[in-house]
Specification:
Layout lengths: L1 H13 E3 L15 E5 L9 E4 L3 E8 L2 E10 L3 E6 L2 E6 L2 E6 L4 E5 L5 E3 L2 E3 L2 E7 L2 E9 H12 L6 H21 L9 E2 L15 H9 L5 E3 L2 E2 L4 E2 L9 H4 L20 E7 H10 L7 E9 L5 E8 L2 E6 L1 H6 L13 E3 L4 E2 L2 E5 L4 E5 L4 E3 L5 E3 L4 E3 L4 E3 L3 E2 L2 E2 L3 E7 L7 E2 H9 L4 H8 L4 E2 L1
Parallel strand pairs: 2-14, 17-33
Antiparallel strand pairs: 1-5, 2-13, 3-6, 4-5, 4-9, 6-7, 7-8, 9-12, 10-11, 12-13, 15-16, 15-34, 18-32, 19-20, 19-31, 20-21, 22-32, 23-30, 24-25, 26-27, 28-29
Helix pairs in contact: 2-3, 2-4, 3-4, 3-8, 3-9
């Protein structure tokens, strides 16, 4: 009898269903929310484990989170799908069934919700589909940024660079909400590189949280709309026009020179002709064995925007930054950037006259060198002529790298090259520029408010 009584006490401690709440203040307001699809670890799962011991089960409404039941379990809970419904379970027993859409949970004491190895502020919404379940993190945009910034920029960067990143990330998030980036999937942004990397509470840092708080609500606007505030790691000299990388020309995403990029990324890749043949076959180029390659087009920043391969069966050209970088994915990985040169395979122009102030030079453009703002010496690959009324670029003719065992690509920068360079922002901050000046340098003609 005593043994049975002890067992009953243990079971009672493992799960307690507390009385339903009838009056409850909203935890958040709908207008301040973003919905983050947790695609990395909690999408299309058979079940999802919840470590919290004391939670509210409820629903997301237009006015905020509304609880239906307060639940307690010393060992946490498991969420699963049963048909079109979401169920919460303890030790294999169903303790709560959500009867409508928008099934959400929050911690009773306001702590982050822990799913597996990750913890998230705000509420977690569960969505059933086909007998499986996915999770969406619903929280304020400011709390979302607490988890984004340390994932996208080193917390050790200068505070003004971190503040520039906070404004850019906030603007990108709001633009995504407005454009319905993932609307068809039931959320605003994903937690991966397709949107902004987000890992919840686990990577939060006092420096990045400070940057979010000190720029609270500030965003970048063009024509009264939040801009597509894209950013990347390192330019290696200059950013690019949006149309040279993607398809749409945006007036605020113009090529600008770096003022002082801090330790720009430098990289080298080597490929054999056999590897390039494999990559061409993988891309269905239909040119046989590759025996030559050239950078056949360059954008305003000097980045490659056309790459031509020559083979025993003809030639084939790939254009646009993403496709050029991705061409190499089958033979060693996507290139870090399109800011690269190929020895013997760069565009050349006719000879030009250059006046330095004390002497005149007459030589092919690609035989000249220039000293950039970072103190680095580099080869010149483009020039413009101004006739007093308009400016035009000198026509270039591709030369082809051939022979030997293959090619070596020497590159600078990391990322797509459009918008704000994070290492450039860090360099500007170290020179004394504030976050507003940094943002106005990289995003043309915008307002910060």
């Amino acid at each position: 009898m005593r043994k049975n009584f002890f067992l009953w006490v243990v079971l009672a401690a493992a799960f307690v269903m507390l009385p339903t709440m009838t009056v409850f203040a909203h935890y958040y307001e709908e207008s301040d929310l973003v919905r983050i699809g947790l695609l990395r670890s909690f999408s299309n799962r058979e079940s999802i484990n919840i470590a919290n011991t004391n939670i509210f089960a409820g629903y997301g409404t237009e006015s905020g989170f509304m609880p239906v039941q307060e639940l307690y379990s010393a060992g946490g809970f498991t969420a699963r799908a049963q048909g079109n419904q979401v169920q919460l379970m303890v030790s294999g027993q169903v303790v709560h069934t959500f009867t409508g859409t928008g099934a959400q949970i929050m911690d009773v004491n306001g702590y982050p919700i822990t799913l597996g190895a990750y913890s998230y502020r705000g509420a977690i919404e569960f969505r059933p589909y086909g007998g499986r379940i996915s999770a969406i993190n619903v929280l304020s945009i400011e709390e979302y940024l607490y988890g984004v910034l340390p994932s996208e920029m080193s917390p050790g960067f200068h505070i003004e660079a971190l503040k520039a990143q906070a404004v850019a990330s906030r603007t990108f998030a709001q633009n995504s909400v407005n454009q319905g980036r993932h609307r068809a999937q039931g959320f605003d942004l994903c937690d991966g590189t397709h949107c902004q990397v987000y890992r919840g509470v686990s990577l939060e840092h006092e420096n990045t949280t400070r940057a979010v708080r000190e720029t609270h609500g500030l965003m970048l606007f063009y024509n009264d709309s939040p801009i597509l505030a894209v950013y990347f790691s390192s330019s290696g000299g200059a950013t690019d026009n949006s149309e040279d990388v993607w398809f749409e020309a945006r007036p605020y995403l113009r090529s600008v020179n770096e003022i002082h990029e801090h330790e720009p990324m430098v990289w080298t890749r080597t490929f054999t002709w056999q590897q390039l043949t494999t990559a061409a076959a993988n891309a269905n180029a239909g040119i046989g064995t590759v025996n030559g390659i050239s950078v056949s087009g360059m954008g305003a920043s000097g980045r490659a925007n056309a790459l031509t391969l020559y083979g025993t069966g003809g030639s084939w050209t790939v254009t646009r930054e993403e496709r050029i970088r991705g061409f190499f994915s089958a033979i060693g990985g996507t290139l870090p950037s399109s800011n690269f040169t190929i020895a013997g395979g760069l565009p050349t122009t006719q000879a030009v006259n250059v006046t330095s102030g004390w002497q005149d030079l007459h030589a092919p453009l690609n035989t000249l060198q220039a000293l950039d703002s970072n103190g680095a010496i580099s080869t010149v690959h483009m020039a413009y002529i101004f006739d007093g009324h308009s400016m035009r670029r000198l026509d270039s003719t591709p030369t082809v790298a051939r022979g030997g065992s293959g090619i070596t690509i020497e590159g600078r920068g990391w990322g797509h090259g459009v918008g704000m360079s994070q290492r450039g922002a860090y360099g500007m901050a170290r020179m004394g520029f504030c976050f507003r000046e940094i943002l106005l340098h990289y995003y043309t003609g915008v307002e910060i408010r």
